[in-house]
Amino acid sequence: QINTLVQGTLGYLDPEYFHTSQLTEKSDVYSFGVVLAELLTGMMALSFDRPEVERNLASYFGSSMKEGRLLHILDQNIDEANIEQLKDVAHIAERCLRLKGEDRPTMKEVAMELEGILVIEEHRWGSDNVFSEETENLLKTAQSVKNVEDGIGGSGIINSYDSYSLNQISMSIGGR
């Protein structure tokens, strides 16, 4: 005889399961939303060491998002330099944590949205790298190499930039 019992950890288990005793594809989405909320806040899914309104991270995260307090609940160790990406991930987590499964995105939608955030971030970094290479190439092109007598009969090379070239570089960089 085979018994199938749901083994779930409180704080991660889909709230709909408590009413229907059925797990759906959207149950995993809810659990993933809890994981995202944990990553963003640095808090455990369930903690009796926190004040009552904060004990269940999913509900605390959801109410904090509705009240516009994301920045207040973010983990202090998170670099807020990419605040737009953090807000996007938090919005995904909020949607994953909706009480009704039908109101949650599918896991495929979540994956696509997270990948979209990653692509935007990689593109932003990629642009910086291209800009650096472009700037370096401009500097190399603008550089003029002059031979000078060192007074002892030998010659040395001095790398210099003429003011016209530097002006052109700063104009092309500033014009972006």
TrEMBL record:
Residues 1-126 form the Protein kinase domain. Keywords: ATP-binding, Kinase, Nucleotide-binding, Receptor, Transferase. SUPFAM superfamilies: Protein kinase-like (PK-like). Coiled coil: none annotated. One of its GO terms (biological process) is cell surface receptor signaling pathway. InterPro entries: Kinase-like_dom_sf, Prot_kinase_dom, WAK-like. It comes from the Eukaryota. The keyword Lipid metabolism does not apply. One of its GO terms (molecular function) is protein serine/threonine kinase activity. GO terms for cellular component: plasma membrane. PANTHER family: WALL-ASSOCIATED RECEPTOR KINASE 1-RELATED (PTHR27005:SF511), WALL-ASSOCIATED RECEPTOR KINASE-LIKE 21 (PTHR27005). This is Wall-associated receptor kinase 2-like protein. It comes from Trifolium pratense (Red clover).
